[in-house]
Every structure is written in C-alpha cells, then in structure tokens.
Design brief:
Layout (H helix, E strand, L loop, with lengths): L4 E5 L10 E9 L3 E4 L4 E8 L2 E5 L2 E5 L4 E4 L5 E4 L5 E9 L8 H7 L9 E2 L1 H6 L2 H13 L5 H23 L10 H13 L6 H7 L4 H12 L3 H18 L16 H12 L3 H12 L1
Antiparallel strand pairs: 1-2, 2-9, 3-8, 4-7, 4-9, 5-6, 5-8, 7-10
Helix pairs in contact: 1-4, 3-4, 5-8, 6-7, 8-9
C-alpha cells in the first residue's frame, strides 16, 4: 500500500497537556476499541466507510465527513469491509487553549455524544474541508509561519462549527439516501432487543432476504446482521455505563445467550464487557 504520511505539530510525546498535532496518513481499515484521548480530536475522512460510536451514539461515516470528540467522550470505530482508509486529523491538547479559551468553549457547545458528525455536504457548505486543505498544505513543508497558520485555521474551524450548530443542529443527522435502507435502520433501532433476523426484516419489507441484504450493503458498506449486532452491542455498552451488571444484560439487548453476547462485544468493542466497565468506571472517578 502506498502510505502517505504528513505529521507536524508542537505536541511532544509523553506530554498530555501541551500543543497540537496534525497528521495525514493512509492505513488499512481496522477496529479501535472504546477509548478516551487527553485532547480534542477532529478527523476528516478522505476515503473510507466506517462506523464510529461516541458515548453510545452511532454514526456511519464516509468520504468527506468530519467527526469530532472532546477529551470526555468515550469513542470507538470499526470498518465493515477491508479497505484503504485515508484520513487527516488534528489533536488539540489542553494547553493549546490556555491563550484562546474561546475555541474550547465553541468546540464543547454541545451535549456529549451529540452532533459529533459533520456530513460531507455540511463540511463543504461551511468551508470546513477548505480549512483542512489549508492546514494540510501548511504542514507539508513547515515554515516559521506554519504554527500561526494552523492556530488561525483552528479558530476559524471552531467558529464555523459553532455557527453551524446554531443554525443547523436540529436538522442534520447521519442518514442514508435510500428510504428502504433507512427503514432497515429504523426497524433495527426499534426492534433489536427482540428475536429479529435478516429474514424477518426482509419479510416486513416484502423483499427477499438476499435483495434486502444487497440493498443495505450497497448503501452502508455493511451487512444487516453486522448492523443488528452492533446495535445490540451499543445498547449493552449504554446499560453498562448506566451501572448494570455486564453478565445480566445480554437478553435485554437481543442476545440469546451470554457466550454469543461476549463474543460479539469483544469483537466490536475490542475488549470484554467487564474490561469496558472498568474503563468507564475509571473515567468517572
């Protein structure tokens, strides 16, 4: 694989407080378990389709989308298929905001797990893609002015996001373009705790299971079964974060037995239910 790697910033390894870091690279799609950063993270997806979960809320991301998280938001991501993943991101550490605290206030002007996702069309409408282009170009061949250019663009990004949330937040949410694919999303969201399957969902739509599968995969990049399992796992994560015992919730989330639940949770979260509970409990202390 031809890996492009651009990296620049004032952040130093083993320093969880100061500076920023910009990176552009290409990697295979992979699964990253639920985790927290010590920084604000803003990711611009150049190419790739992925499922990103923030505080239990799921976002299906694709080319041109932006996803944002704060240091307090637990998040994870996974890829439905093998692919080459192109992205650029910027990390903003707490010390970055000391002289410009208004940026942090603008980036945090939303509830945790809400409005993390900026769809590609919104990124273009507000010029957020152009801001990333300016940062990318300035970091390719750094000069004395590069840090100033990055800081100015981050301020502009925060201001535009703040305006976008004020103007459009109630309106924009991730959605597929196909009404039938949207029906499958909604049906799973409403019935995942029941004994549903690909066949029963397809029957509800008066479609053959293979046709429903093909439609959903073409639209989202993942199978109906994968999304159903992910939705159940997300529900389990939410119940664990609410303080429920990991060993007693599998049936509430639609799993028939604990072993199936355990395997699915470990596959999509990257850790066992109890390990996830320990991480979340540590986060709250």
């Amino acid at each position: 694989m031809d890996t492009k790697y651009i990296r620049h910033g004032t952040h130093m390894i083993n320093n969880d407080r100061d500076g920023y870091m910009y990176s552009f690279n290409t990697t295979p799609g992979y699964t990253f378990a639920s985790h927290l950063h010590k920084c604000h993270e803003i990711i611009h997806i150049i190419r790739g389709k992925m499922l990103y979960t923030v505080e239990g809320n799921e976002y299906m991301l694709s080319d041109g989308d932006i996803i944002m998280t704060t240091p307090d938001e637990l998040h994870s991501f996974s890829f439905p298929n093998e692919l080459e993943y192109h992205r650029e991101f910027i990390h903003l550490y707490p010390g970055f905001f000391d002289k410009i605290p208004d940026i942090a206030a603008m980036l945090e002007a939303r509830e945790p797990g809400r409005y993390n996702h900026i769809p590609a069309e919104k990124a273009k409408k507000y010029g957020l893609d152009k801001i990333f282009e300016d940062i990318r170009e300035s970091c390719k061949n750094p000069t004395e002015e590069t840090d100033t250019i990055v800081i100015a663009n981050v301020m502009l990004f925060a201001a535009k996001v703040h305006r976008m949330l004020a103007e459009d937040a109630p309106k924009y949410q991730h959605a597929t373009s196909s009404s039938k694919a949207n029906f499958i999303y909604r049906y799973i969201d409403q019935h995942f705790m029941e004994d549903v399957s690909v066949a029963s969902i397809a029957e509800t739509m008066t479609m053959a299971p293979t046709s429903a599968q093909r439609l959903f995969r073409n639209e989202t990049g993942m199978s109906i079964k994968s999304y159903l399992t992910l939705r159940r796992v997300t529900s389990a994560k939410n119940l664990i974060m609410q303080g429920q015992n990991a060993a007693s919730i599998f049936s509430e989330c639609g799993f028939k037995d604990y072993s199936t639940f355990y395997r699915a949770f470990r596959k999509y979260v990257g850790m066992t239910p109890n390990e996830f509970k320990h991480i979340y409990d540590d986060k709250k202390r």
